[in-house]
Write a structure and sequence with these properties.
The chain is of the alpha/beta class. The chain folds into 2 domains: 125 residues, no CATH class; 96 residues, no CATH class. The protein contains 10 helices and 5 strands, in the order ββαβαββαααααααα. It has a 5-stranded mixed β-sheet with strand order 1-2-3-5-4. α1 links the parallel β2 and β3. The longest helix is centred in the first third of the chain and has 21 residues. The model has no long low-confidence stretch (mean pLDDT 94). The protein binds zinc ion (ZN). The site of zinc ion has 4 residues, from α5 and α6. Zinc ion binds next to α5 and α6.
């Protein structure tokens, strides 16, 4: 394994992913201050370690025990995580070997480390057991993955709270719900929700978002 290190990040990668690692480091350096600022953080307690795996079995071996702890299953679309406090991610070649990401572009791939870095920062302020619907919604929103918006939330609060990672289209749902929160609340209110996502009345948010979305859809189709 090769290693590069700067002020904020340490990257570990295989020699053949050297160019990729340099690009990952560059996007993280570029986004570092913006994301810390959103979380009202001056700095992180330690440098963030990013491991770019070139062996999918090794990646799975690290990931699966964490998933089991929260009662979630491993899915082939899972290409990055921060369960152990580091950013673990598959190399671009390995991402392209998955069904869900077989046509992922380099630009799309480079969004992944930023998304994961949002989770790393979020871990530093969250005071509750991580609530996936909120943390995935926030991460997709903060990196601007706006192609994720859905036009209907088909799940109840309970389903999203208890079974998030096993639901179809759950990231799009999370993106849409947190997008609605960002429209409604100030940054300091959002920061409070980020610390304690249980402060959000999720069922109310789902119902309200659905009624908003159906109005938007009506407008769209009446044009
Ligand atoms: Zn995520």
């Amino acid at each position: 394994m090769k290693k590069i290190e700067n002020k904020n990040f340490i990257l570990q990668f295989d020699e053949k992913d050297k160019d990729l690692a340099n690009q990952v480091q560059a996007v993280l350096d570029k986004e570092y201050s913006r994301i810390l600022k959103w979380f009202d953080l001056e700095s992180l307690p330690k440098k963030t370690l990013i491991k770019i795996y070139n062996n999918k079995e090794e990646y799975k071996q690290n990931l699966i025990p964490w998933l089991e702890k929260e009662g979630a299953q491993y899915h082939d679309w899972m290409i990055a995580d921060t369960y152990d406090g580091n950013i673990n991610m598959l190399s671009l070649d390995l991402c392209r070997q998955t069904e869900a990401h077989n046509d992922i572009t380099l630009d799309e791939f480079l969004i992944t480390p930023i998304h994961e870095f949002v989770h790393v920062c979020h871990r530093n302020i969250i005071q509750e057991k991580n609530l996936s619907w909120f943390s995935e919604g926030l991460a997709t929103q903060l990196v601007g993955q706006d192609y994720y918006k859905t036009n209907h939330i088909p799940y109840t609060a309970k389903e999203l709270q208890q079974n998030f990672k096993n639901l179809d289209g759950s990231y799009r749902v999370a993106y849409t719900l947190v997008g609605r929160l960002l429209e409604k609340y100030s940054h300091s209110e959002m920061l409070e929700f980020a610390k304690k996502p249980s402060k959000v009345n999720l069922q109310e948010l789902i119902d309200e978002t659905n009624s908003c979305l159906s109005k938007e859809n009506e407008l769209y189709y009446s044009k």
